[in-house]
Amino acid sequence: MRLGKYSLGIGDRFGRQGKAQLAALLKAKEAGIDVTPVWNKSSREHGIIGTEPADVRREADAAVGACAWDGPYFVDADHISLANVESFLEASDFFTIDVADIIGQQAGEEEVNAFVSRHEGLIGTVQIGGSAASFEISTADLRGIASKYLAAVQEAGRIYRHIEAHKGAGRFVTEVSMDETDTPQTPVELLVILVAIADEGIAAQTVAPKFSGRFNKGIDYVGDIGRFTWEFEQDLAVVGYAVREFGLPENLKLSIHSGSDKFSIYEPIQSALRRFDAGLHVKTAGTTWLEELIGLARAGGDGLAIAKEVFHQAVSRMEELCRPYASVIDIDRTRLPDPRVVASWDGSLFAQALRHNPFCACYNPHLRQLLHVAYKIAAEMGPRFTEALERHREIIAGHVTANLYERHLRPLFID
Question: What would be the CATH architecture of the domain defined by 6-286+406-414?
């Protein structure tokens, strides 16, 4: 199985928006750009919502059939480890192997020594090519990076081989993810990580490093855009070099997690992709769920009542809801609107506060981040919530499609 040049992780927490999501990708196809859809859902999200991996496969297959989608598509076992991969093996054909928690665990000294000896050619000046500067790597540098990352890559290898034993060689797409950690990887570190991935025989088609800056859920990039641009371009060059020199799959590409809504870096990303003729996987961060809330609010009546109730409960349960996402949200409680004030809002005002439009005076990124992690409350509503999604399907679908196409696909891959 081969992932296309451009691909989009389209998480859909409640499994109701597959056709609306594909409508955005069909619009991109009409504009001349093929983007492969990848439905992704993590074990944590399944546990909160009460679904299982087979539900995601059913949604994807049904949407593809209903929309007559004739391109490839995938179902991603998102952020899996050996502890939870088993339940995803049947339904998934894309596996995001997450080994961020293993970073820094010490590999055996003999294994580190063997790695350094095997790759002495990396010591000295490494000419990466492209627009990347040459890298100077000392023996101490190589040993230090290997000591930090080798155990994590070896764990990725164990998970990969476990999946391969069940699925068969070449019958699934692999991503190696190291983004959920505090410290970004430098381009030199990424190079060594990719060399270790090649050593493990992992046929990775995407790799998700940790970039500089903040990639908070549902809001714009926070950080030095110039630094990110430099880092992203260097990483693109490193991926190309690793493919040429170490036998990794020729379609290996970078993956950006929580990549939705990072509007301020989309222009430099697109410019770099064109300069390097490179591919990209962007994983959206649950923003389809926010478009559902926006659609419900705009629908008024029972839909608006549900949206307000989710916010009201989220404020009172803020600590509980935010705890699992503490590293990827920054919410200032003092800048949240008073629930008593929100109770008086009409649907238009609620939608304006929630929709990611930095030019709108009503937009509130703190409310948006809180509601982003509040999908647990909607899940607890059960049929009351899902039946409302069905009743207001048309208005919600319009918001889902417009969000993906106008705010993401166009600025990333088309305009």
Answer: Alpha-Beta Barrel (3.20)
